What we know:
Layout: H1 21-44, E1 49-53, E2 58-60, E3 64-71, E4 77-80, E5 83-85, E6 92-98, E7 102-111, E8 118-126, E9 130-134, E10 139-141, E11 146-152, E12 158-161, E13 164-166, E14 173-178, E15 183-192, E16 199-207, E17 210-215, E18 220-222, E19 226-234, E20 240-242, E21 245-247, E22 254-260, E23 264-272, E24 276-284, E25 288-292, E26 297-299, E27 303-310, E28 316-319, E29 322-323, E30 325-326, E31 331-337, E32 341-351, E33 354-365, E34 369-373, E35 378-380, E36 385-391, E37 397-400, E38 403-404, E39 406-407, E40 412-417, E41 422-431, E42 438-446
Parallel strand pairs: 2-8, 10-16, 18-24, 26-33, 35-42
Antiparallel strand pairs: 1-3, 3-6, 4-5, 4-7, 7-8, 9-11, 11-14, 12-13, 12-15, 15-16, 17-19, 19-22, 20-21, 20-23, 23-24, 25-27, 27-31, 28-29, 28-32, 30-31, 32-33, 34-36, 36-40, 37-38, 37-41, 39-40, 41-42
Amino acid sequence: MSSKVPHNRKRPSFSLSKHQRPLVIAVVTIWLGVGLASCLGQRNELLALEITSPQNRAEVTEDLVTASGIVSLSSAVVTVNGQEVAIAEDGTFSSNVALGYGENTILVTATLEGQEPVTKTLAVIRILSLEINSPQDKAEVAQSPIIVSGTVSDPDAMVMVNDRRVETANDGSFSSSVELNYVKNNIRVTATVNGQEPVVKTLTVTRILVLELDSPEYRMETSGGLVTVSGTVYPPSAVVTVNGNEVATTKAGRFSTDVELGYGENTIVVNATDPVTRTVMVTRMLTLEIDSPQDKSEITEGSIIVSGTVSDPSAVVTVNGQQAEIAGDGTFSASAELNYGDNTITVEAIVEGWETETRTVSVTRILTMIVTSPYDGAEVAESPITISGFVSDPTAVVTVDGQEAAITEDGTFSTSAELNSGENIILVTATVEGQEPVTKTLTVYYIPAE
Length: 450
């Protein structure tokens, strides 16, 4: 571009002092220096290339990997395995690379006119992965068959479970039914693709026979001669024996049977085929209960009926040494004579093979007396009057103001008493040998009729 001024234009005239001219020259010099430095900087900057992903020798299961990185000059040309890729303004770039199984080389090259190409090389290894989701290794199961399930990274891979090919879904999942023997079973799952080395997963599953007892509880104590043994076995096809006797099982594996017990400890052994054993201890014991009378009760009669229950009707029950009658349900009763004061009643039950069971109650026999007529505080218009009442023991001696009264067999008594005009204190006393007298005092007012 010409810097000449056309001849038909008048050149501008400047009037500069000698001090202004160096300043203009300096400004022009600075501008030229900056521009030259900028041009030289672009020309002298070296081309740099970095790959940010994937890592060298990374192992992946996918058939595509994204190669990404950054180049120092966005004007450069970047190729990934020979294919040019777009570069963003900040110099970043990315490109999808198809992978085959095994080791894959990815070559990234950056070129810029006037500079040597920059090259980065990395290896990416595509592998086939295989995971077993169920069952867990070393699992214990009762059922057969079981479902073996898992996932393979490539749906096109061939999956074998114990040398039997299984279908894989589009997402790589698979499942297969496997029959189990009792005890340990080795399950081998393999996956192969495109001539690659097979991927192998192995696990051990133990099939167990489940035998559970619901009753009786271990070391249970019972008074009955029979105990019900019940429980569940799995699989239901197993043969169950109780103390050597085969027991029927339902479709659900339930079983139940009664076992006779002897007195003392009884060992009950439950077996299921292949074999599983459960053992319980049941102790048969003799029980004895006194229902009547209550301990520490007070009785007025000279004898009492003692009743109760024994767990074994074949037992011998005695009440104070006298054998009692026992019904088929184990209830018993017997009469016991009582003395005045404290009486201990001892009941014993004896059966072969068991120690004697003993129960005791304490009963106190007391003397009681009731004056039925007249009532305390009565007002009468006649004399003598009749004093009557009841005493619990017809053999007792009843006196009214020191005069003995006649007593009938049912314990009623009566006698007459003379009264003085006005207030009369009457003392009624009942005595029996060996006991403190029982007394009743009443006041009667005699008001003669006019």
